[in-house]
Design a protein that fits this description.
With 232 residues, the chain is α/β, with parallel strands linked by helices. Helix content is 41%, strand content 12%. The chain has 9 helices and 6 strands; from the N terminus they run βαααααβαβαβαββα.
């Protein structure tokens, strides 16, 4: 028989737009790319301002190809690939969202095991976590890229792996994340408590969920989240 759980024993968090606002990582990356470009071509052009305005307008696809075309830079495919590498490998200027450190501290003090489960390219995800300086709070950290790209959400692989590392049953796990399109489908199927943490400035919070992918709870503050996690 499957285990019967009365309390949440482990809380697993997403990274981007959950522990910090992703838009600030994007802006930081644009600044790094702009600095690299200005040094490369020897001209001062408003690269980051143009990219940021395009991003705010919802035009993020092929950003560096569009930049190349707009400023008539005549960059090769290899040079554009280098811009992508600069973006992903820069040391970001980001910080945890308000209330995150106090929330993690309270959960640890109440005996909850904490995990981090996030998709995305390495080393970008590792650099993000290092920048917000929260590694010490987590009992286990899993970037699904370390398994394979097929383990990115909505795959259940990462959830299965981190559940084993935390050594708790599925019904005693909670997942806190931001994106309904991919974050909650797998943990819902596994019997986790799923919680969408919404805050102003998130990028994917309004994405429609797939069938079975709605979060079981929605919160807007760290106090709301703590109350739910301690009540379950």
């Amino acid at each position: 028989m499957p285990p019967r759980c009365r309390k949440i024993q482990a809380v697993v968090f997403d990274l981007d737009d959950t522990l910090f606002l992703e838009r600030y990582y994007v802006k930081s990356g644009f600044e790094a790319v702009a600095t690299y470009l200005r040094n490369m071509i020897g001209e001062k052009k408003p690269f980051e301002r143009w990219m940021w305005r395009r991003f705010l307008a919802g035009k993020s696809e092929k950003m560096f190809d569009s930049l190349n075309e707009h400023f008539s830079l005549n960059l090769s495919k290899d040079q554009i690939a280098k811009l992508i590498a600069v973006y992903r490998q820069h040391n970001p200027k980001i910080k945890p969202c308000r209330g995150v450190k106090n929330l993690l501290t309270n959960l640890k003090q109440r005996g909850k095991k904490l995990g981090l489960l996030s998709d995305g390219f390495l080393p970008a995800q590792q650099l993000k976590l290092r920048a917000i300086n929260l590694e010490r709070f987590f009992d286990t950290i899993l970037f699904t890229e370390e398994i394979s790209r097929t383990a990115w959400k909505p795959s259940p692989v990462g959830f299965e792996r981190i559940k084993e590392e935390l050594d708790v049953p599925h019904c005693a796990c909670a997942y806190v994340a931001d994106n309904p399109a991919k974050d909650f489908l797998a943990p819902n199927k596994l019997g986790w408590l799923t919680i969408q943490w919404r805050r102003r400035g998130q990028i994917h919070a309004d994405n429609p969920p797939p069938k079975g992918g709605k979060p079981k709870q929605i919160v807007h503050t760290s106090k709301e989240l703590l109350k739910i996690l301690l009540a379950n």
